[in-house]
Amino acid sequence: MNITDVRVRKISKEGKMKAVVSVTIDDEFVVHDIKVIEGDKGLFIAMPSRRSSDGEYRDVAHPINTSTRERLQAVILEAYEKAEESPEE
Questions:
Q1: Which superkingdom heads the taxonomic lineage of this protein's source (predicted)?
Q2: Residue in 79, 70, 64, 86 with CA at minimum distance from that of residue 5
């Protein structure tokens, strides 16, 4: 799996959510609405989710192993940090 594009939309409102990200994989598949969230231990990502009929939130798409999640998070947070350093568009 190659992450071929990361698009960061920074959130200007105050709060824990800092950005919404779209990731393209192998120039063929896109996952939208990955959230960058500031938690007590630093930044992390939350995969896109949907509320089910029982009121629980369930991921729409997500990595199936820890190493893939860690790699995805590292790439997304690196892109977010670069976006933070650049002036507003």
A1: Bacteria
A2: 79
Question: Residue 14 and residue 70: Cα distance in Å, rounded?
Answer: 26
Task: Find out whether 4 and 25 touch, Cβ atoms under 8 Å.
Answer: yes
Q: What's 1's DSSP letter?
A: -
**Gap between the Cα atoms of 63 and 66, Å rounded:** 8
Q: Is 37 helix (H, G, I), strand (E, B) or coil?
A: strand
Q: Is 59 helix (H, G, I), strand (E, B) or coil?
A: strand
Task: Give me 86's structure tokens.
Answer: 């650049």
Determine the pLDDT at residue 88.
Answer: 61
pTM of the model: 0.88
